[in-house]
Amino acid sequence: MRQGILGIHHITAMSGVAQRNLDFYVGLLGLRMVKKTVNFDAPDVYHFYYGDTIGNPGTIFTFFPFGEGPRGSIGAGQATVTSFSIRRASVEFWLKRLKDHGVSVSGPEKHTNETQVIFFRDPDGIALELVAHDGAEQRPGWRDGSVPREHAIRGIYSVTIKVKNHALTSDFLTDVMGFRLLEQSGERHRYEVGEGGPGTMIDVVSQEDAKYGRNSVGTIHHIAWRVANEEELVRWQTKLINAGMRVTEVKDRSYFKSVYFREPGGVLFELATDPPGFAIDESVEKLGTDLKLPEWFEANRSTLEAQLPQIHLPVIGRE
């Protein structure tokens, strides 16, 4: 059995208009709609899961689309940037694609670890990066999306968080969660966990005078880290409690089980199991096609469907 934190499971953000979110992530970025369900804690709001062909852990970016709700503010105690993997040969393709669709980009910037990084924002202002690096070919992408296969996004590369006190977060990551310091540049510290490499890294940016962020539309809600199974999840729940963390009960999210807690800098973390995965209630071919509800909401399906905004998957046409 694989023990320890294995890497990033998924990242969850709060967006505005549901159709606009779909058009951007499925239509423009070429991710697959892996699951269309509801926020289990607020079922009148969708929960979209985007990822690769089968929704492998480490490829999943999820959204709660709240419509034209109040805007959040980005600051300390939050994840601030989600970075995706692309092939080195895909840099020019993505620069042209984003610019042709009216997306303002900066870069590519060359980083010290031999990567090239393109920075941009989604329609709600959420910060995104495309990181071109060796080995991206070894990671999964969606083969049948709007982006040609050779240029498809290959999962999550890393995530960035902002905290006021780096030492507290650093000690927790290394002493409790098993992360290793990989590199440092100024107030940015990069850590990795598990086997290391893309999909296992977190950048901690420290800014003592930063204002705390406020979660709402346009902000990242939490980062979920992978554990192998429910036995490991319960072991980690106990370990975190013994380390002084306030940890939730185990929650059944249908496609994984999880617990939540805040690291010392205030960023909301989740631990999520790899199984059972997203193909338990749809075939791989039909993933993301129908609205899927947990059994405890099925009795209210007609009411929920009437409350949720009408949406459609973008027509997939490659350029």
User: What is the general shape?
Assistant: globular
Helix coverage percent: 10-25%
The H-and-E topology, N to C, reads as EHEEEEHEEEEHEEEEHEEEH
Strand order of the largest sheet: 2-3-4-1-13-16-15-14
Query: What radius of gyration results from the CA coordinates?
Result: 19 Å
Domain count, please report it: 1
Could you name the CATH class?
Answer: Alpha Beta
Quick structural summary:
With about 325 residues, the protein is α+β, with helices and mostly antiparallel strands. Helices cover about 15% and strands about 35% of the residues. It has an eight-stranded mixed beta sheet with strand order 2-3-4-1-13-16-15-14. It has an eight-stranded mixed beta sheet with strand order 6-7-8-5-9-12-11-10, with helices on one face.
How do the helices and strands line up, and which of them pair or pack?
Elements: E1 8-15, H1 18-28, E2 32-39, E3 42-51, E4 60-65, E5 78-86, H2 91-100, E6 105-110, E7 116-121, E8 127-132, E9 156-163, H3 166-175, E10 180-185, E11 188-192, E12 201-206, E13 219-227, H4 230-242, E14 251-252, E15 257-262, E16 268-273, H5 301-307
